[in-house]
Design a protein that fits this description.
Elements: E1 16-17, E2 20-29, E3 32-39, E4 44-48, H1 49-54, H2 64-67, E5 69-70, E6 73-74
Antiparallel strand pairs: 1-2, 2-3, 3-4, 5-6
C-alpha cells in the first residue's frame, strides 16, 4: 500500500458518493482501505475506497428503493 504502515486515508465520513453515505472507517483489510457505507435504501456494507471514488461498486446497483424517485419524478422500468 502506498506509504506503508504510516499512510493516513483521506477522511470520507459524512460524504456521499452516488447513493452511498459514508458512516464509518477507514477499515484496513487485505492491504486495502474500506469504508462502512449506508445506501439510501438502508443497506450497510464495507466498500473499498477506490470503488467509492470512481463509482465502481455494486452495493446500490440493484437498489430499487433508492432509485425509484429521481428529481421529484418516479421512475418506472418497462
Amino acid at each position: 500500500m502506498r506509504g506503508g504502515e504510516n499512510y493516513m486515508a483521506e477522511n470520507l465520513i459524512g460524504r456521499t458518493f452516488n447513493l452511498l453515505d459514508v458512516i464509518d472507517g477507514p477499515i484496513r483489510k487485505n492491504n486495502k482501505i474500506y469504508w462502512r457505507c449506508k445506501c439510501k435504501c438502508g443497506t450497510e456494507k464495507e466498500i473499498r475506497a477506490d470503488g467509492l471514488k470512481n463509482g465502481h461498486t455494486d452495493l446500490a446497483k440493484y437498489c430499487l428503493a433508492a432509485t425509484a424517485n429521481r428529481d421529484n419524478m418516479r421512475l418506472i422500468a418497462i
